[in-house]
């Protein structure tokens, strides 16, 4: 979706983007407009880079890892903006702080749910390893064990993760806080709240995509409408439409899972199961060897992809947690929020498991 060409205007091609969120006659200095413009242009670029190259790339684990990397970058961008605004916490309105803490704890809960589901999927790899190990010796006894492990994998994949259900409620709560707080007497506050709106919208979209991928349902996909006054609105609408349309199409076609690497493993299991179900004739030796090899390759890709994705989810968790720590520390001791962001950049905390 391309934006119609318009004559060049300073800072914003759509006129004053604050017309809908600030009283008539309110003033933002050129410096603040430049800061906001730079933030939104960067956000637009990150969203454009996140769009999958083709339909086959939607919900590959490699794309999901890139999506989580993008969230890490965007949340780091908002910290950089806070630093540039030089907005002391003592000047923050209580409602800004309340919204920030409320949203951040919701994001931490979502990260925990995603980490839990990734761990559950990784546990399924143990069954596949047992299958491959047992088929190394083509005896009837080993075939029985291989079938048992295949059944165990199927049952494990069919099980439900209760943390995902709670994640849906958290996401609903996050969506209800998208509206911008009313800002009256703080030009810097207007810039901050508008930038945070962009961060929240993109974060919610990515989280809804992850939830759809992990849950086996497209019901929780979001379809957010963003005002065109935002420089990143067209890129966001393009990404949302493309990814959501493809995911819904996948589920409509009857796919059990829309995760590309997991689907490949499921296909390999279905192909291998009949071969080991009733034993093996000599003529089927090559079929068994090929099926086992294919399953081993797809299982390795799934395991490696999950490991990399887990690291990015943990990294995002740390970024959100460090932001909370920075603000909490600042509220206790007073001072400048940007200083605390820098001071708490490398704060560590337990990894989510």
UniProtKB/TrEMBL annotation:
Q: Which Pfam families match?
A: ROH1-like (PF05633)
A GO cellular component annotated for this chain's UniProt record is: membrane
Membrane topology term reads: Single-pass membrane protein
InterPro entries the UniProt entry points to: ROH1-like
Q: Which UniProt keywords apply?
A: Membrane, Transmembrane, Transmembrane helix
Q: In its keyword annotation, does this UniProt entry include Transmembrane helix?
A: yes
Q: Where in the cell is it found?
A: Membrane
Family stated for the protein in its record: Belongs to the ROH1 family.
Classification via PANTHER family: BPS1-LIKE PROTEIN
The protein's name:
Uncharacterized protein
Q: Which organism is it from?
A: Handroanthus impetiginosus
